[in-house]
Specification:
Strand content: 15-25%
CATH superfamily: NAD(P)-binding Rossmann-like Domain
CATH architecture: 3-Layer(aba) Sandwich
Structural class: alpha/beta
Shape: globular
CATH topology: Rossmann fold
Strand order of the largest sheet: 3-2-1-4-5-6-7
Bound molecules: nicotinamide-adenine-dinucleotide
Number of strands: 7
Number of helices: 5
Radius of gyration: 17 Å
CATH class: Alpha Beta
């Protein structure tokens, strides 16, 4: 499949896990990708890395300008960069709460905000944001993370409705139990009943990030031309 031949994409969180797998998938299907992360991303013929922190409000504008300057257009934004911090809700340090919201929610918003005008210039585009099963069901000891992902889902639906007539679609992929480095950040607070998190575990087995990348590629492609404002779980049936 070459669904992204002639298309230009920006992917955040591109150095690891789901973001990295998404870059690979989009490139395999013909895209030029501007790949953003705080960690290094390897450059290639079709991948232009830009180092930066999505909490820097100027970064998104720089990245979109670089995509348009280098390749003449922007068709796809995949906002993947995210962090997870755990604590009992009543013990969540405020600075941690703020940091999680800054990266996951505001970092997604600034990239959407910068990408939309460039997409309007070419008559439309596709935005895929990264939620979580935590956006859809209670996720103990992840108050900030869950709130940020719920916010990402609401933001996505807002964009979907607001820009539908301009040819921009926005959908939210909601992974669960994907085997990536972020899962190591799920630290159970001392003394809690770990069984409470069981309903968020995959029913089959944890899968790799490629399976989420495949869904993201579908949502970003013309195959999903009539899919807009949707949240798509990639969780092995956990919340079915
Ligand atoms: N793995 C799962 O089971 C799972 C489940 C639900 C949602 N998600 C979401 O998927 C997304 C990707 O996570 P992953 O599983 O691939 O984990 P990951 O840790 O492998 O990838 C996250 C990437 O985001 C980057 N990043 C973090 N903060 C950043 C910042 N401030 N600026 C720029 N880049 C930053 C990291 O460097 C890393 O490359 C996250 O938004 C996460 O919340 C993952």
């Amino acid at each position: 499949m070459q669904r992204f031949e002639g298309k230009v994409a920006v992917v955040t969180g591109a150095a690891s896990g789901i973001g990295r797998a998404t870059v690979t998938r989009l490139v395999e299907e013909g895209a030029q990708v501007v790949a953003v992360d705080v960690q290094p991303v390897e450059a290639s013929e079709r991948v232009r890395p830009i180092g930066g922190d999505v909490t820097d409000p100027a970064l998104a504008e720089q990245v979109v300008a670089a995509a348009v300057d280098s390749y003449g257009r922007l068709d796809v934004l995949v906002a993947v960069a995210g962090i997870l911090r755990t604590a009992r809700t009543h013990e969540h340090p405020l600075d941690v709460w703020q940091k999680v919201l800054d990266v996951n929610l505001t970092g997604t918003y600034t990239f959407c905000r910068a990408a939309i005008p460039a997409m309007l210039d070419v008559g439309g585009g596709a935005i895929v944001t990264t939620g979580s099963t935590a956006a859809l069901a209670g996720h103990p000891w992840a108050a900030a993370y869950s709130a940020s992902k719920g916010g990402v889902l609401a933001l996505t639906k807002t964009i979907a409705v607001e820009y539908a007539r301009d040819g921009i679609r926005a959908n939210c992929v909601c992974p669960g139990s994907i085997d990536t480095p972020i899962t190591g950040d799920f630290v159970f607070p001392e003394g809690v009943d770990a069984r409470l998190v069981k309903r968020l575990m995959a029913l089959d087995k944890p899968r790799g990030p490629e399976t989420v990348a495949a869904t993201i590629a579908f949502l970003a492609s013309a195959d999903a031309e009539h899919v807009n404002g949707e949240s798509v779980r990639v969780d092995g049936g956990t919340l079915a």
